[in-house]
Design a protein that fits this description.
single chain; alpha/beta; TIM Barrel; 3 domains; eight-stranded parallel beta barrel; eight-stranded parallel barrel; 41 helices; beta-amylase activity; polysaccharide degradation
Length: 1312
């Protein structure tokens, strides 16, 4: 039967509805109804401007159409002629040789039923085979949230989809999958009804504000309002978290389809109909084309309370709180723009208020897409994802673009509303899927001239917005298309003829598979369309075939690389041999000395401890002895080596092995039979210390020993215990000198700082709060002694009355120094870190009474709060996603009752792996089990040694943790914490959350592990040799065009090497060569990317609460060109590169606080004690402070060593409140690590209390003399310089004036 180009039919309104809802156009995914976009409705007539669209109208009238699917004699079967077309032939463009554009076909809505079962699989299989015969690339399927998670939260049923996906894979087709978080059935054209999950609708019955709401308070249940993206109203989850859990479940369930490449793209549903827009034109509420729609938000139309709250807040920030409302003159759903005051030409949409409101309205849309796509990238790492925009083309030729404004696209005549959306998509690497590619503006003029529509103009704008942002652009047809005219329009838009850059669509999806498409003439046109979209494929030849010389070049590079590798192996072998020789000599020297002198040395220590002090001569002798010792221990390979016969070395090895075997048996027996809690690598010193404690003696970490009842007789240098960094106590590895050059008794020199911020070399006393089974097995005296020290604190008078307030002990007394006046300086909160053992492995609070007493003492000093480590290994110890927060809940309640604040650390690392940790908290058991079968989940050094302190960043995106990636595991843990302690967040008790990003919670590589033999000031080693890191390095090297660079440096030394001993870090070394710069950039980029990923999720989990990240102050080798220790830690900070700029930029992106350590260290101390380390902590602090403040991020501080003396506290104050800073910048907060019995002693506590008052800017109880004049200031501070200069005896006279001059300039002193 022949049809004319235009057919006039008489239809009633009900018949017109049937036209749109019949099977021809059933299941339209576009939000704009098909019948109202292209039909002219006036009275009872419908004008149709396209021939094959008439089939649907005719069928609605019940007319007969002779279009048998197998045979139609009236149709021409050729590809080059229009099938059954009565119009004259129009010359068509030849698409042969054009770009290949894949074509997918969307499956019917009803292919999966509400029980998640596949409907009519045999018929579907036949249709898929027909599509396969047309060379269709694949199919698109909606995965409905309302089907999969229908009845209970996080209970997913994927059975029907699995069967469907298997069917598609068997046919060797690809899959596009839509994460459909919306309702199906609410729009015209939906032939099935799929509501939101039942448990969601039950929540909606009690809290209807979870839905979008119009001005008349009508709720739209098609999807959830974006106002609850961050609100925990869905069974303790936010909407965004619900979407993420759903997507992750899908990714895990169909992992093999992702691995095999069957699933080629995931489209993320972002709103009604899966499109990123507001539901501003719902048919269920009476909207008809071309109505402008209504604003679906809190301020403009009857609003849900969550978006209203957001608008009110935005108005208050703007300073106009009365703007926290919606426009009052924006009409209704079916208004025309010129009829209302807001959208008419010159209307309120372009006023001050209108621009504010529309900016806020569109920003909410962009922020929603940003949040969801961020998590989608995490869930579908390695797979392309896309987001869909609807083509709202009506009223496009008006000034206001009213229909677009109500949908959230701020695209008025003086703005580009799609550029910000494209920029957001580019941020996440997401493709833009746009509709209405088949529509022609001329058809709209015929049907609805008053709508002033322009689909072609809209498509052109969106095409250029996407391509200008360099994001892929995909498309769908908005209406079912069966004629050549519509297909040709799609082809013109998909492959623009005159585009000079050859840009084209990335993929096209045909909407939708139906019986009408399967009819013979329709399918022939479709098959012809697919062929033209594919163009003519061209064989891709190897580059070597185009460039004959390339093969020879590659061969030369390979030979060169093999030679370099052979040379590097020889060089590293020589280095290893020399280091082994040094170690053997050192072992023999000190082991033989131990046999003869160890007992005498310990006895001497005990005598010194009981005498209570040392003379300056003994101090100097001990200092010299310490320097000699450090020359051997800290700097292997430095100095002349004694040549020894080979036989003597072999005998030494045998003797050492024999001694170690005996020691191992002794230690094993003590652990088994003596009930001693000795670490795995304990030595004879640990045995002696344990025996002394059992005999009732107190043994400090530095080896100092004294009776437990005679604390007043301790040496002046005694308070050296409990040096802390990060989560661990850091302690000195050597016996400290009693006093050095006039340093106060409590001042920690860099001798005690031996391992600096990387932790010390031996175990301090167990925490008095650790009453776990392992600790209780020790003698009761240990815990008792800790309590006695606490009780002898400042409130009881104590036994420290004999200690006077002099800060100098071994030089003639000098007058008290005038100090800086901090009156009027900013208030800086002070927090104290709680002991590591406050919570045991069963997640129970240990010794709550003792802890409460100490917290009250801290409260009396006006401390603002405490910091607590929340250990992953305790909370999620046994089973994935089973969390036990009991002990922390009791602890937080205690802190809350004392009206203190909380800083919480998300500790994803191990405690106890570094010397100085007084408790052992491993990673969760289930993680350790995975590590035994796959050790590459841990950081690995060049020798293949694994570091189980934390997980390798190489598995951030690898699903190796029971179907989850490492990033997802961290996110789930943080979400659980946020939900469990919601009331503490709401009440403001938790003021900041510090997110652990690496070893010791710090953003760095574990390049200096003590367990692997590192000693200060060794440069450390690169930790990038697990298979996941090497895979990343290989990929990066190949992308750079140098695949032979996929290796770590061969000449970077070992843990205890010094820069000048290595070919990589020496001056002019390879670190600054082409390969070195490539490797270090990659190494540092991995670090920044890890922080970026984790902090983005932390920001989502802890929305509204400050988050922080910690950086370690690696100051040794800072004065060398390479900054070797920083490089191995991942901080690319050589002399010609700022390694902290990229880190602070990343922190600024997430609004995170930078927590930096070592603000209390003096460079002059480092110059004396470890001159060979070329350390400069003051220079490092100055660089990091300015890097943070230059980008405007807050910075917090933490001391690397325990502070007990005024000199060190004053140094912290100088850095926390720089008085010379013209902008008045200062620390956001300061954290003191860590609460200990030593801090509670009277003298040290008084200094700490004074420090807190000064940080708070309160008057001191004893007012110190102020600086009367500049001359006196110069004299007093010069005197301080003179005191410090006594420590420079080992310096040459040539270098000393330069150092003193530099110190003086830093303090603003004019010296004669």
């Amino acid at each position: 039967m022949a049809f004319n180009a235009c057919v006039a039919l008489s239809l009633t309104n009900s018949q017109l509805f049937l036209v749109s809802s019949m099977r021809v156009c059933s299941g339209f995914r576009s939000s704009v109804t098909c019948n109202l976009r292209c039909h002219r409705v006036k009275g009872d007539a419908v004008s149709i401007g396209s021939r094959f669209r008439n089939f649907g109208v005719a069928r609605a009238k019940g007319l007969k159409i002779e279009d048998h699917s197998l045979l139609d004699d009236s149709l021409d079967n050729t590809d080059d002629e229009q099938v059954g077309d009565v119009r004259p032939k129009v010359p068509e463009r030849d698409f042969t040789g054009t770009a290949y554009v894949p074509v997918y076909v969307m499956l019917p809505l009803s292919v999966i039923d509400m029980n998640c079962e596949l409907v009519d699989p045999e018929d579907l299989l036949n249709q898929l085979r027909i599509l396969k015969s047309a060379n269709v690339d694949g199919v698109m399927i909606d995965c409905w949230w309302g089907i999969v998670e229908a009845h209970a939260p996080q209970v997913y049923k994927w059975s029907g989809y699995r069967r469907l996906f298997q069917m598609v894979r068997d046919l060797k087709l690809k899959l596009q999958v839509v994460m459909s978080f919306h309702e199906c059935g609410g729009n015209v054209g939906d032939d099935v009804h799929i509501p939101l999950p039942q448990w969601v609708t039950e929540i909606g019955e009690t809290n209807p504000d979870i839905y979008f709401t119009d001005r008349e308070e009508r709720r739209n249940t098609e999807c959830l309002t974006w106002g609850i993206d961050k609100e925990r109203v869905l069974k303790r989850r936010t909407a965004v978290e619900v979407y993420f859990d759903y997507m992750r479940s899908f990714r895990v369930e169909f992992d093999e389809f992702f691995q095999d490449g069957i699933i080629s793209e995931i489209e993320i549903g972002l709103g009604p109909c899966g499109e990123l827009r507001y539901p501003s034109y719902p048919a269920k509420h009476g909207w008809t084309y071309p109505g402008i729609g209504e604003f679906q938000d809190v301020s403009f139309q009857c609003y849900d309370k969550y978006l209203m709250k957001s608008l009110s807040k935005a108005a208050e920030v703007r300073g106009h709180s009365f703007w926290g409302r919606g426009p009052e003159n924006a009409g209704s759903y079916n208004s025309a723009p010129h009829e209302i005051g807001f959208f008419r030409d010159g209307g309120d949409y372009d006023s001050y208020y209108g621009r504010f409101f529309l900016n806020w309205y569109s920003q909410v849309l962009i922020d929603h897409g940003d949040r969801v796509l961020d998590l989608a990238n995490l869930a579908f790492e390695g797979t392309g994802i896309s987001a869909k925009l609807s083509g709202i083309h009506w009223w496009y030729k008006t000034a206001s673009h009213a229909a677009e404004l109500t949908a959230g696209f701020y695209n008025s005549s003086n703005r580009d509303g799609y550029a910000p959306i494209a920029a957001m998509l580019r941020k996440h690497g997401v493709a833009l899927n746009f509709t209405c590619f088949e529509m022609r503006t001329v058809d709209q003029y015929e049907g609805f001239p008053e709508a002033l529509a322009d689909p072609e103009g809209l498509v052109w704008q969106v095409l250029n917005a996407a391509w200008d942002a360099c994001i892929p652009l995909a498309s769908e047809n908005a209406l079912p298309c069966y004629d050549r005219e519509g297909y040709n329009k799609i082809l013109e838009n998909a492959k623009p003829l005159h585009n000079p850059d050859g840009r084209h669509l990335s993929v096209f999806t045909y909407l939708r598979l139906s019986p009408v498409l399967m009819e013979r003439h329709n399918f022939q046109e479709f098959e012809r369309f697919v062929k033209r979209m594919h163009g003519k494929s061209r064989k891709r030849l190897s580059h070597a075939l185009f460039f004959p010389s390339l093969q020879s070049k590659l061969l030369k590079r390979t030979v060169t690389f093999e030679r370099e590798r052979e040379y590097g192996n020889r060089y590293s072998k020589i280095n290893r041999t020399s280091e082994e020789d040094d170690d053997e000599e050192m072992d023999m020297d000190f082991k033989e000395e131990d046999d003869d002198n160890r007992g005498k040395h310990i006895a001497a220590q005990m005598m010194v401890g009981m005498d209570g002090g040392m003379t300056s001569n003994s101090s100097n002798n001990q200092f010299q002895h310490h320097q000699q010792f450090q020359e051997h221990v800290s700097s292997p390979g430095v100095g002349a080596r004694r040549s020894k016969p080979l036989e003597e070395k072999e005998r030494t090895k045998l003797r050492e092995r024999h001694r170690r075997a005996i020691t191992a048996r002794i230690l094993a027996g003590l652990r088994r039979h003596g009930n001693y809690n000795l670490r795995v690598r304990a030595d004879i010193n640990d045995v002696i210390a344990a025996l002394a404690r059992e005999a009732g003696w107190v043994v400090l970490p530095d080896g100092t020993i004294f009776p437990s009842r005679s604390q007043g007789s301790r040496p002046a240098g005694g308070p050296s215990a409990a040096i802390t960094s990060s989560s661990s106590h850091l302690v000195s590895q050597l016996t400290p000198p009693g006093s050095l050059g006039g340093v106060s008794p409590g001042h920690q020199t860099s001798v005690e700082y031996n391992s600096c911020c990387m932790k010390g070399v031996f175990i301090p006393n167990p925490s008095p709060y650790d009453l776990s089974a392992s600790t209780q097995s020790q003698t009761p005296g240990m815990v008792g002694e800790g309590r006695e020290q606490t009780e002898s604190g400042p409130r009881d008078g104590g036994s420290m009355n004999t200690i006077n307030d002099k800060q100098i002990v071994d030089i003639p007394p000098i007058p008290k120094l005038p100090e800086q006046d901090f009156a009027g300086s900013p208030f800086i909160p002070v927090y104290v870190m709680l002991p590591l053992g406050a919570i045991n492995m069963k997640c129970e609070l240990v010794d709550p009474d003792g802890l409460l007493k100490q917290l009250k003492v801290l409260k009396s000093a006006n401390v603002d709060g405490v910091m607590v480590d929340c250990w992953w290994g305790i909370v999620e110890a046994h089973t994935p996603q089973e969390y036990n927060w009991n002990g922390y809940k009791r602890l937080f309640q205690m802190v809350h009752e004392l009206k203190l604040k909380l800083q919480v650390v998300m500790s994803f690392h191990e405690c106890g792996g570094n010397v100085g940790d007084d408790v052992c908290i491993p990673l969760p058991n289930w993680v350790a089990e995975i590590g035994r079968s796959n050790p590459d989940i841990f950081f690995t050094d060049r020798e293949g040694r694994r570091n189980p302190e934390c997980l390798s960043w190489g598995i951030d995106k690898e699903r190796v943790l029971r179907g989850r990636t490492a990033i997802e595991v961290y996110f789930d843990y943080m979400r659980s914490f946020r939900a469990e302690f919601d009331e503490f967040f709401e009440d403001g008790i938790i003021s900041m959350v510090e997110v652990g990003l690496g070893p010791c919670g710090e953003l760095r590589y574990p390049s200096c592990p003590v367990k692997h033999g590192w000693r200060y000031p060794g440069i450390g080693e690169f930790e990038c040799y697990d298979k996941y890191f090497l895979k990343s390095l290989k990929k990066t090297a190949e992308a750079r065009g140098h695949p032979f660079w996929a290796r770590g440096p061969d000449n970077a030394g070992s843990y205890n090497s010094q820069p000048h001993e290595t070919g990589f870090f020496c001056d002019g070394g390879e670190y600054d060569g082409y390969y070195g710069r490539f490797f270090l950039n990659w190494y540092a980029r991995i670090l920044v990317d890890h922080g970026d990923r984790v902090l983005s999720l932390a920001k989502l989990a802890f929305e509204g609460t400050r988050i922080a990240a910690k950086l370690l102050g690696i100051h040794w080798w800072y004065k060398t060109s390479s900054h070797a220790a920083e490089l191995t830690a991942g901080l690319y900070n050589p002399c010609n590169h700022d390694g902290y700029a990229a880190i602070v930029a990343m922190l600024k992106k997430h609004g995170a606080v930078l927590n930096f350590s070592c603000p209390e260290l003096w460079t002059v101390d480092q110059q004396v004690d470890f001159a060979e380390a070329h350390a400069d902590p003051e220079g490092l602090v100055w660089q990091v402070l300015n890097a943070a403040w230059d980008v405007g991020i807050p910075i917090a501080g933490e001391n690397a060593l325990p502070c007990y003396d005024r000199v060190t506290y004053n140094k912290i104050l100088d850095n926390a409140k720089p008085l010379s800073d013209p902008d008045g910048r200062h620390f956001l907060s300061f954290t003191y690590p860590r609460l200990s019995p030593l801090l509670m002693e009277r003298q040290t506590y008084m200094e700490f209390e004074r420090f807190v008052k000064t940080m708070h800017v309160r008057l001191l109880q004893k007012v110190l003399p102020t600086v009367p004049c500049e001359g006196q200031t110069s004299h007093s501070l010069s005197h301080l310089v003179a005191i410090r200069a006594k420590k420079l005896a080992s310096f040459s006279r040539k270098g000393m004036p330069l150092l003193i001059s530099r110190f003086s300039r830093r303090k603003g002193i004019q010296m004669e």
